[in-house]
Each structure stands twice: as C-alpha cells, then as structure tokens.
Specification:
670 residues; Neuraminidase; 4-stranded mixed beta sheet; 9 helices; 4-stranded antiparallel beta sheet; alpha+beta
C-alpha cells in the first residue's frame, strides 16, 4: 500500500513548473571560474520522491530585508534526485539553504510572475560546507521554519549575525538533513520519548504532507495566517508563521494531520500551542539547579547553577562551584565548565558587562546535609574573562557588603548592580572595578529581601523588594529615588526593562525569597499546596515616572511568576515557578503585538500559556540573538531538599524577537 501511494505521489508531482521565483539565468551550472562545489540531494514527501520540483540553493541575506541570493538552480528527476554546482560564497559565515518548489495540482503559471507554488520544502545547510547528499522533506522544513522563524519573511531568509548563523545550526538539532530523519538532539534523552517535542515535530510534518499531496494547502494557509496579515503563500512561510504565533488555531491545524502517518511517532491529540521546546544539558553532568543565564556577543549561554551535580537527588549536595557555558545548540563549549574565582551556590545573579566579562553572584545555595557553612560563602561575587578565566580571588570579590546576592545586572557603562537579598541593600560596582564597590541601603522597610534588578533607558536601576512588596528606583550613581508600591506588586521576583523606558515586574504572589532566615525548605513548604494559579500571581508595568496602572496584568499563563524578560519587539516573557508554562504578554509597543491586542493582553493562550512537559519549576527566562527563549529548570516539580535542583535548560525555538547580546539594560533588536 505504501509503495502504491508513493507511486501515485510521484505521478501527481511530475511535470511541475515554478513561477520564476528566481532569475531564469540561474541554473545548475556555475559561471566559469574556480573549481565549483557540488551539492547532491533528493526531494521527498514522506518516503516518496517529489519529481520535477524546482530546487534552488540560496545564500541568506546578511541583514533584514536584504533578500536571499540564489546561487544555483535545477530540477529534481523522476526519483526526486538533483545535483547543483556553485561557487563558494565570499563570506565564510554565509548561511546556505536549499528550497524545493512544487505545485501538487500541476498547474502551469510560467507567465504569471506573481504566482508562487504552494509547496516549498526546505533544508538548512548553514555555514558548513555541504557533505554528501541532502534530503528535503516536510520534517526538514519544520526544522527550518521554526529555527529561522524570526529571520523568514515572504519565504526568504535574511538576518544579522550571530543570530542567523546560530539559528541555522539549531535547525540540525531538529532534523538531520543527510537523510531527513529526526536530529540527534531531538531524538535522544533528555528529549526523545521523554517529552512531546519529537511527536510535535512529526505531527507538524504530517500537516505539511497534506499540502504536498495537493489536499490541504488552502486550509493550512488560512489557519497559519496572523490576524490582520495576509496568509502565507507556501508551506515554508506557513511553518514560520505558526512558529511565531503557535497558540493560534492549534486544534484546527491538528485536524489537518488526520489520516496521515508519514512521520511517526506523532501526537494523539491537539496541543494547546504548536511550540517546539528542547532540553539542553551540556556535557550531561554539570547542570544542577540552573538559576539564570546570560548570553555573550556570540550568543553562547553562560549558566549559573545552585548545586553540585549529583545524579541521585537523595544524596546531599553542596553549592555548585562551576560556571557552565553552552553553545547556541546546547553543547558544552570546549574547555567549559569553568571553575574558581570564589564560585559557590550561585542563585539568580549572572550578567555580562560591555567588555564581555562575566559576573556571578554567590548566594550560597546548597542541599540539606552539606557539611559546609554557607554563611562564610554567600558574601561575594565572582568575575571571569570572556574565555572563562577567573579574575576574582579564590574567595570571590567581597567589597561592598554583599550578603546573599541574587539579581545581578550590568548597565551600558559597565557598572554592576547586585541585589543583596540578605542585606536589604544593593551593591554597585562602578566601571566593573570590584575594589570600588559600595553598598546602598535605602533604610527602614523600603527594601526588604531585594531580589531582581534591571536597568532602564536612562541608566537608573530598579530593584524588587520581595519582602516589602515594592520596587526601589535608584539613580545611575546609586542614589535612592523612590519606592514604588501598589499596582499589584506582591512578592515580586524578577524585573525587566523595555526600550520605551518602562519596567516590568513578575509578581509571584506567594514565593518568599530564601534569604534573611527563610530557607529553601521553607519555600518548598509554602508552595507545596499551590496546585492552581495563585490569585495574586501577576505582572506589573511601571512607567518611567514610577506610576503603575491601577490593576496588574493577570491571566492563567501566570503561575508563581519568577523570571521576566523583554524581547526585541518589546513583548514580555514570564517564567513560572509552577504550572509548567511560559507566558507571553503584549508589551507597551502595541504595534509589535498581534492585531487587536493591547498592552498586558496575553499573546500566549490565556488559559494555559505556552505549556511544555519539558518544563519543571522555572526561575529565569532570557532571549538569545536567534529569538530562542531559554528557561532554567531550577527545581524539580516535587523537590527533595537534599538536592532539589532541576537538570536542564529548556529552549523554545524561534518564539521571540531576537535581542542583541550581551543584555545591557533594555533590549536592543538584533
């Protein structure tokens, strides 16, 4: 039966033509000159060949709107096979990708240059030289569409480095272009059959296969369409549109896969949203209680850990003494993780300054049963060079009366701001010179359990007071200016600034920060009985003048909100310590939100957020230069206090507007 279907598909797709999407002078033969490179491949739908598809090798544009450049062009034969010859691009970091355009109904529109064949299958080659045969099928198209979602408009790929290059590499985590199978990272633990992501990718590929067969194209394009925008005109753009707004028409899209099983295993019911989330673990024995992450200029991820890795959570563990660093594809950078500089039990505080130096705040986390005295270890910050060499002494930098430090941020001038959760104060390190650090204590009850810190467009620092239900505003030189209360601020944790000068605050509503005598075990006990969204979980907007709306923003995507971040479009992302979900809100720049939404409205589904069975209890959320959203699986859902740490970073692929890194206050679009 499968052979019969394949034969029918081959017959159906024979004799296809394209609508002059690239200049007709581009052919399978390169211009005279140096010895050309050769790229072979095959175009498939499921296991069947796609004949007479127009195959084009493109070089992606190097900036938004630049347009992709065709390097070679040919057609697939009756078996779906093709060969292209082309010259090496001038730029070594040029991103290459293959497209195969086909019209399953066999229509001929050679004279209509506006017409685009509805089927476009894609394989991302990336910056590496092609090796062997490349397969283009629906799975590689899903991988390309999600990873390149923030760099794809009108079916062409373009963007700035390093985001574009990193995104192309991430595509290989999802699909193996050598044979069209599942990518190694997606196929193996802690992904594979441990989460639903693999089944999601396969189901999306099955949805595309309906269009490739000529049966569901118009339905697919109508469902992928964004509010107020024209529908996509071909399958690759449809995937990218779904990736950018994955909560829209989720059940209706799932119905398009009914009766199709070219890609297995697949989902058995519709998801709440078509997100693709991968778990990353570095070398597999380093991440334990990741608290936060910061990205350097190349987009590599620097991750702090609460605990020393131990595979068995029943065995007591002490504070982590390593600084993890992962590539954009989730692998340990050669030479990492890094040690020294006084690192011990870092919590929520990590930042990278304008010179690329990494700062990690040593909170002194450790599991119950550790014989060390954390009181002697939670009074410092560690500093590292951009290549991971410690600059701080073995005991860390201890100037500025640091006590149980949590949130840490660098501004554009290189000043480092540290929230002293156990000291009711903030430490400011001017120009990154730790010996000049000074302590800023507003006094009284205005700042109790300071936790999160962010810097706004004017260089002012904003610090959340988890124990005072407040946010303290400090001048660029550290002078306390005002304490903001009201507007729903309750048990605030993280804070983030946007490009318009606003500050966004994640109100946990119930989490008591584990400092000033509160232990992690007490936190676990306090939230143990919270099994539905807490009534006071919310997000507060603070305007540049310190005022807030009368009411905070509330929806069921918010469940013990902890970390918060703003992307390159000024939309707001919230990590939750409960509920296994990521929330996305319309920011203050409403023109960047889906049509009809206003500031504070949920972009993610209001009832669920973006859920994922790959999530545990999350603290941090940050955006990388490719538009991937990283969350820290900080605690296990049911934690054992001997070692409650989660073991992964979870990365939602292509979901947010890219951000230039390192993050120095407000986000800057890539």
């Amino acid at each position: 039966m499968r052979l019969r279907r394949a034969a029918l598909l081959t017959t159906l797709l024979a004799g296809l033509v394209t609508g002059a999407a690239v200049p007709p002078a581009i052919t399978g033969e390169p211009p005279p000159g140096d010895e050309p490179l050769k790229q072979r491949g095959v175009v498939r739908s499921g296991s069947g060949p796609v004949a007479a598809a127009e195959v084009t090798l493109f070089q992606a544009g190097d900036r938004p709107g630049a347009g992709a450049r065709p390097l070679a062009r040919t057609r697939s034969d009756a078996h779906g096979r093709f060969t292209l010859r082309y010259r090496t691009p001038d730029r070594p970091d040029a991103v290459l990708y293959l497209t195969a355009d086909a019209a399953p109904d066999g229509r001929r529109h050679a004279r209509d240059r506006r017409w685009v064949p509805p089927v476009r299958l894609v394989a991302m080659i990336g910056t590496r030289q092609p090796t062997g045969r490349v397969v283009l099928n629906e799975r590689t198209t899903v991988a390309a569409g999600f990873s390149m979602a923030q760099f794809t408009r009108h079916g062409e790929v373009a963007g700035r480095r390093p985001g574009l290059q990193n995104a192309a590499a991430v595509a290989h985590n999802l699909a193996d272009i050598k044979d069209g199978s599942v990518g190694d990272v997606l196929a193996a633990p802690p992904n594979g059959d441990r989460t639903s992501t693999l089944r999601t990718v396969n189901t999306l590929a099955d949805i595309l296969s309906g269009c490739t067969a000529g049966e569901t194209c118009q339905s697919l394009f109508d469902l992928a369409r964004h509010p107020g925008a024209p529908p996509p005109r071909e399958t690759f753009q449809a995937v990218a549109d779904i990736a950018r707004l994955p909560g829209r028409k989720a059940a209706e899209l799932f119905a398009l896969a009914e009766g199709r099983d070219a890609y297995v295993p697949r989902l058995t019911q519709a998801p709440d949203a078509w997100t693709i989330a991968l778990r990353y673990v570095g070398n597999g024995h380093e991440i334990d209680g990741p608290g936060n992450v910061a990205f350097d200029a190349q987009g590599t991820a620097w991750i702090i850990n609460n605990y020393t890795f131990r595979a068995d959570p029943r065995l007591p563990t002490c504070g982590s003494r390593i600084l993890s660093r992962l590539t954009p594809t989730g692998h340990a950078v050669p030479g990492a993780p890094y040690r020294g500089g006084g690192l011990y039990g870092a919590g929520f505080g990590v930042t990278i300054d304008p010179g690329g130096r990494v700062w990690a705040a040593n909170f002194g986390f450790q599991g119950t049963g550790c014989p060390l005295d954390a009181d002697r270890l939670y009074r410092s910050v560690s500093e590292f060079t951009p290549d991971g060499r410690p600059l701080s002494p073995p005991g860390g930098w201890r100037f500025g009366d640091i006590v149980q430090p949590q949130g840490t941020a660098s501004d554009r001038e290189g000043n480092i701001w540290i929230a002293n959760c156990g000291g009711r104060s903030v430490t400011r390190i001017p120009d990154g010179d730790a010996r000049r650090a000074r302590n800023i204590a507003p006094g009284g009850d205005r700042l109790i359990k300071p936790f999160g810190v962010t810097v706004d467009t004017r260089g002012r620092a904003w610090v959340t007071g988890n124990g005072s239900d407040s946010v303290m505003q400090l001048s660029p030189n550290g002078r306390p200016l005002r304490s903001i209360t009201g507007g729903g601020i309750k048990r605030p944790m993280g804070a983030a600034s946007d490009s318009l000068g606003n500050v966004w605050v994640a109100n946990s509503g119930a989490v008591v920060a584990p400092c000033e005598g509160t232990t992690p075990a007490m936190v676990a006990e306090a939230i143990e009985s919270i099994v539905t969204r807490h009534v006071d979980a919310s997000v507060t907007l603070i305007r540049p003048d310190g005022t807030t709306p009368d009411e905070p923003f509330v929806n069921d995507g918010l469940f013990l909100p902890w970390g918060i971040a703003v992307d390159g479009d000024d939309t707001v992302w919230v990590a939750n310590f409960g509920g296994h979900r990521l929330a996305n809100l319309c920011g203050a720049r409403e023109s960047a939100c889906p049509s009809g939404l206003r500031t504070g409205d949920p972009i993610s589904p209001a009832d669920t957020g973006y859920p994922s069975d790959g999530l545990d209890r999350n603290t941090a959320v940050q955006i990388d230069p490719s538009g991937n959203v990283w969350l820290a699986n900080n605690w296990r859902t049911v934690p054992l206090q001997t070692n409650p740490g989660g073991r992964e970073m979870v990365v939602f692929i292509g979901l947010a507007a890219p951000v230039r890194t390192p993050l120095l206050g407000p986000p800057r679009p890539l």
